[in-house]
Amino acid sequence: MESEKHKINLKQKIMKDLFGQAILDFQTNNYPEDLLTETSISEADEMPVNYLFRSFALMPLIEQKALELAKGKILDVGCGAGSHSLYLQNNEYDVKAIDISVHAIQACILRGLKNAVVQDLLTIENESFDTILLLMNGTGIFRTLAELPSYLQKIKSLLNPGGQIVIDSSDLIYMYDENEDGSYSIPANGYYGEITFTVSYKGQTDKPFPWLYLDYNTLQRAAQANGLQCELIIEGEHHDYLARLY
Question: What is the Cα–Cα distance from 131 to 122, expressed in whole angstroms?
């Protein structure tokens, strides 16, 4: 586990943490600008930072439903600006928010989160939870399809009896051209939901990182292969969905 922590620390040193810097700039009124995100299958697109600070009323239905499903002791993985955790904390839930971004966690603490920690999911030991949240395309934290089983086994080990994983993602098949026979023109090598993300902010560009979008059927098969049941909770309007694993 020490070697794993070393990997996390090394990762943080290599990355400029521009996403977290934008969050902290917005929280501290330090001349925040829009983030610029680009993927290996799409052109650069602007993301207003204030979107990460949205209230429950302004969250998509999928996120609202996820928070309504939350129960017991909660772990919010990849919490970002902490909006989900803040809502839960304000409703008297015991919630721990984690992110590998130092700047994002600083902003969470400034926003009033009582238990916000710079931590990688894989390094959590001697803790267990009733609900584990992975939201805003939460499958992305799994990085690649090959790494998915390791992450699912780790999350499974953190669940209390009767616990649940509440997770959302999108099916990227719509990004590819559809042929006359109904098939799609997708790359022959690898899984089409494996992409690379690049974040730019205030004239700087961070190192590209892998991100995994999972269609529901692939998530369901992976869950079952790792001893978890999977149910579809709700589908969104943009090829997205919310699922519950238990």
Answer: 16
Evaluate whether 199 touches 18 at the Cβ level (below 8 Å): yes
What residue type is assigned to position 186 of the chain? I
Query: What is the dihedral sign for C-alpha 116, 16, 52, 220?
Result: negative
Per-residue model confidence as pLDDT tens for the chain (246 residues):
444 444 444 444 457 999 999 999 999 999 999 999 999 999 999 999 999 999 999 999 999 999 999 999 999 999 999 999 999 999 999 999 999 999 999 999 999 999 999 999 999 999 999 999 999 999 999 999 999 999 999 999 999 999 999 999 999 988 876 776 666 677 767 899 999 999 999 999 999 999 999 999 999 999 999 999 999 999 998 899 999 999
Q: How far apart are CA 171 and CA 162, in angstroms?
A: 28
In contact, 103 and 124? CB cutoff 8 Å:
no
| Cα–Cα distance list, 150 to 94, 127, 155, 211, 221 (Å) | 26, 18, 9, 15, 15
Q: Which of 35, 46, 30, 41 shows the shortest CA–CA distance to 204?
A: 35
What one-letter code names the amino acid at 57?
A
| CA dist., res. 170 & res. 232, Å (int) | 13
Q: What's the number of CA atoms in the CB half-sphere (13 Å) around residue 184?
A: 11
Neighbours of 147 (CB within 10 A): 14
Note if the pTM is more than 0.85. yes
SS3 content of the chain, % helix, strand, coil (to 5): 35, 30, 35
Backbone angles phi, psi at 189, to 5 degrees: -105, 130
